[in-house]
Structures are given as C-alpha cells and as structure tokens.
Amino acid sequence: MVNKLSGTVLIHGDGHLAKSSGGGVAPSISVSTTFRALNPEDIVTGAVANGDLRNPLTHVYSRYTQPVRTRTEQILSRINDGYALTYSSGLAASYAALIFYQPKRIAITGGYHGCHATIEVYRKSRGVNLEVIDLDAAYKPGDLCWLETPLNPTGEARDIQHYADKVHKVGGKLLIDSTFAPPPLQYPFKFGADCILHSGTKYFGGHSDLLSGVLVVKALDDWTKLHHDRTFLGSIMGSLESWLLLRSLRTLHLRVPRQSASATTLAQWLDAVANTLVGHTFDGVPGGVVSKVWHSSLQPRDACGFDPRQQMEGGWNATFAILLSSSEHATQFPHLLQYFVPATSLGGVESLVEHRLQSDPGADPRLIRLSIGVEEVEDLKADLRQALQKLQHVKSKL
Ligand SMILES: *Cc1c(COP(=O)(O)O)cnc(C)c1O
C-alpha cells in the first residue's frame, strides 16, 4: 500500500502544541534558553507539569526542550511513523546513533564520505579497536549495519530487507541513512530498519538555509535514551533552525514528489543521451558527451530479485549522478549551466550541480551530481541541453 505523505499532518500535526502560543497562526521563533520556573503549588496539584518530554506543558531549559523544536519533532515523528529527535546536523545525528548503539563492528560500504569520517571520530573516542567491515561480509552478534539508500552520489537503491534479515539473524541492528529518500519516497521501517537517519539539512529543510539532523526510532524507550544522550552531548538544533525546519516541513509533500518526478524525467532523458552513439544526436545533444547515468529508476532487478520499485513506493530519488566523457568536461560543466547552481549539498528548491571530486576526494573525476529542485522541468532540460552542447568545444586531454 502506498503511504501518502499527509499534507494535513504536515500542517496540523503540531496543532495541539500551538494552542498555548498566544493565537499566532504561524509559530513565533522561540529564542529563550530558559523558562519561568513553576510555582511549587501548581506542581503539587499536577496542573502544569506532565513529565512528558515529547509533549511538555512547560519547558525548563532549551538544551532539554523548547517550544518550536518540540513541535517540529512531533511532525517528524508522525510522517516517519516513529519517534523522531532532531540534532544540530546530520553528522551530529550520526554520532548520536553511534553513541547509542555502541557497536564494536560496523558494516558499511561506500556512501556519504562524512559518515565514514564520523565513524573515525567515534573510533578515537572509544579508545579501542572498532572494526569496520564490508556490508556484504559475514556478520557477528552486536554488529551495526549502516546502510545508505539511495546511495550518495549515484542515487542507486540498496535492498533494505536483505540487510535487515542478515543483521537481525545475528542479533545486530540496522540503521538506514534515508537522506536521499525522505517521505513519501521510502519508509525504511517497513523493510526492517531499526533506526532511520536523515540529514535534515537536505529535503526536510529544503531551502539550503539550515543545518539539522534527524534520528527516528520505533520505541519510546529508545527515544527517551537518545533524548538523554542529546541533552548531555549538547548537539541541539538551534532556535532559528527549528523554526525554519518547521516552516519547511509544511510543504514537504509539495516539494519532494515534484522534485522526484522532474529528476526521473531528466534521468531518463540523460540516459537516452548516454545511449546515443558518437556522430548521432538525441534531442539536440551529440552522442558521446554523457557516458553513463545512475538513477534508481534505471536500476534493473538485481540477481537476488530486489526490485527498487517496491522499496521506493512514493517515487524515485531527486538526486542522482552522471558520468561525462572526461575530467576536463566535468570540471567545466557546472559553470556552463544557467539555472543549476554549482554547489555541493542537495534537496533544496533550487537545482544544484556538483563536480563531485571537489568535495569527495574518492570520487571519479568525471562524475557530476545533480540535485533537482522545483523549477520547471522543461527549463532544466533546456539548460542541460545547452551546456552539453557547449561541452563539444571544451578540449579533453587524451
Ligand atoms: C549531507 C548528508 C549527511 C550529513 O548531513 P549534514 O547535515 O551535512 O551533517 C549524511 N548523510 C547523507 C547521505 C548526506 O547527504
């Protein structure tokens, strides 16, 4: 069954928390770090305190809870079908997950290089050997499987259920970095994930103007432990970021499906370009300039029968990659585009183009990552077309 990302939940999911805010239709930015202490008499009568950290009637200190962040987490919990907690960045959330699971071994292969660097920091903090193994190696009890899907930078999907079964057989846990596929594209809990990680900086934030991270777990007990750790790690999402994120979530269901549909159109079009022989043209673009396109929509069923279509029930990812014919072309390409902004990151309303080597030293020097925004898809296609046409005149070293 297709989970519809509910616009009603996105707009009204925090309504019960809005009542006490003085009648403003939009939330106010709450900058107070500290909150008026309760009258002991009120506490005794139970009139104000309810002890529920997810739904506090009053706040104490903003490292624990504050009004706008609590509202944002309510919405994130509802749309992710679990208990969500926010962090100061995606990598702060990654670190919190490592502290929470305390793995002795982590199975991870490829994906966002920053998560690998965070795992290195965790290794240092433990002062013991942390073993990092390949996703497809044999697992032992207590392993943490860290699966990113769709995968940065190519946007290819990996089989969540396969890794869930594999790691659960030895009593380990499965974390899914689902940054590339926010709701409604994919719901990792349906395929056995224990924890979902998002860089909220990307699609949830959606406007390239806030840093945040999100962890979602299935049990309130786990959420409470994560909340305790976060309070004392201090990796809290800031006041302005909380407000910006809440504001952005109101339109998640309008942005992401549109970005997904446009990306799919463009990936298919670019794939047709990649399949055009040198000396021929496709839709005005000469064959040979694009060597390869990666996108989950182009991914065949794998040998184990994994069909990404079932996992990505709400549409394909809106960030994907192409391979140009030379590194000189890849260096020039971002600067030949008019609407795509040459910049790293992804998920915003504005389309971005990145020569991936510039931020990931391990990347193929010919690889270009595209993050599709909410512009008109025909304008984006025309922009790609004119830039690919110009590449013919950029000299490549032989
Ligand atoms: C950006 C990103 C992160 C890190 O998030 P920040 O908010 O930049 O800390 C983690 N995983 C993936 C897949 C990302 O794209």
Spans of 5+ residues with little confidence (pLDDT < 50)? Answer: none
Distance between the first and last residues' Cα: 52 Å
CATH architectural grouping of the largest domain = 3-Layer(aba) Sandwich
Shape category: globular
User: Level of helix content?
Assistant: 25-40%
CATH top-level class of the largest domain: Alpha Beta
Q: What is the radius of gyration?
A: 22 Å
Strand residue content: 5-15%
Q: What is the tally of helical segments?
A: 13
- Output the structural class: alpha/beta
**Order of helix and strand elements from N to C terminus:** HHHHEHEHEEHEEEHHHEEEHEHEEEH
Features:
14 strands, seven-stranded mixed beta sheet, alpha/beta, Aspartate Aminotransferase, domain 2, 13 helices, five-stranded mixed beta sheet, 398 residues, Aspartate Aminotransferase, domain 1, binds pyridoxal-5'-phosphate
